[in-house]
Amino acid sequence: MRIVSGQFKGRRITAPKKLPVRPTTDMAKEALFNILNNQFYFDDISVLDLFAGTGNISYEFASRGTEQILCVDQDYGCIKFINETATSFEMDIQTIKSDVFKFLEKSKQQHTIIFADPPYDFPVEEFAKIPTLIFENKLLETEGLLIVEHSKHTDLSQLQNYTHSKSYGGNVFSFFENKTIDEEE
C-alpha cells in the first residue's frame, strides 16, 4: 500500500498482517481521488473516515492538504496503527475507537466528505444503516459527499440519497449526496 499523490506521494505503508482489514487498492484509490480532485479543494474540507482500517484513505487526504480528518474504527489495533503512522508522517489525523453505528447515532459534527469502507460481507441492511444514520443526523454538509466502498456483488442503488457508482476491478464506490426538495420533485 502506498500514498498515490500529494506531499507524501510514493511513501509506502506496511500494516501489520494481524489487522482485520482489506485496504482499498492503489488503482481504485487513485481513480477515486481523480474524481474528488475535480470537486473539492482538499485544504478546505473536513473528512470522516468510517471503518478506517489502516487509515489508507485518510493518509491520501492528509497528503493532499486536508487538515480536518477523523478516523473511526472499532479495532484497537487499527486505531493504534493509524495513530503511529499519522505521527511518523506528522499528519494531523484524529482517531476514535468506536463501533461506527454507535458513533453515527451520537455524533453531531458535519463533514464535507464521509468515506465508509465496511466489511464487504455486510448484508445490504447493514450497508443501508450508513446513509440512513448520516442523513437523518445531518452529518454531511450541504454540498458534501458520502462515499461507500463495497464489492461488485453488492448493489446500493436503492438506498436513500444514492446518486451513482463507479467500479474499479472488484471495488465499487457508491456516491450519496444531500438532495434538495427541488431535485426530488
Automatic annotation (TrEMBL):
<dbReference type="GO" id="GO:0052913">
    <property type="term" value="F:16S rRNA (guanine(966)-N(2))-methyltransferase activity"/>
</dbReference>
<dbReference type="InterPro" id="IPR002052">
    <property type="entry name" value="DNA_methylase_N6_adenine_CS"/>
</dbReference>
<dbReference type="Pfam" id="PF03602">
    <property type="entry name" value="Cons_hypoth95"/>
</dbReference>
<dbReference type="InterPro" id="IPR004398">
    <property type="entry name" value="RNA_MeTrfase_RsmD"/>
</dbReference>
<keyword id="KW-0808">Transferase</keyword>
<protein>
    <submittedName>
        <fullName>16S rRNA (Guanine(966)-N(2))-methyltransferase RsmD</fullName>
        <ecNumber>2.1.1.171</ecNumber>
    </submittedName>
</protein>
<keyword id="KW-0489">Methyltransferase</keyword>
<dbReference type="InterPro" id="IPR029063">
    <property type="entry name" value="SAM-dependent_MTases_sf"/>
</dbReference>
